[in-house]
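Lab notebook page, bench 4
Experiment: in silico fold of construct C2
Operator: M.H.
Input chain length: 160 residues
Purpose: comparison with the prior construct
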Amino acid sequence: MPRGARLGVDVGKARVGLAACDPDGLVATPVATVPRVLDATGAGSADVRRIADEARERSAAVVYVGLPRHLSGAEGAATVDARAFAMRLAVAVAPVPVRMVDERMSTVTATSQLRAAGRTSKSHRPVIDQAAAVIILQSALDAERSAGARAGELVEPPPT
């Protein structure tokens, strides 16, 4: 596996959680919660720009975006939204690859971990998206180590 920082992105309706890891891909850590721009259609929206800036600053080797599926594996409205966001992000960060990874239960797991740490629902709202992004990224890192290859499905931006 080539060295390089990786970013993890949890796409929500109101916020986007962002996590990053070291160049060796050992440990995912929270970075930021970015306000979501819902009516955006291009790669120039403030949320996508913020993540693209972070990718450039960290010289990211790959960006992992969570793919929210139903427990059955079926895709729904949230999946369509995440795929559209990932496509806009892929255009903004090219040539850095964007890959979608299964994120079933990431927010539930993040909420559970924050509760176990003694945070109330109200106090963890600002960081829940970051915690979910950490879980998404750490899962991708673990998959990379076990498979010896990048995790998830590649998002192919349209040709320019």
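Observations: The mean pLDDT is 86. The first strand starts at residue 6 and ends at 11.
Next step: discuss at group meeting.
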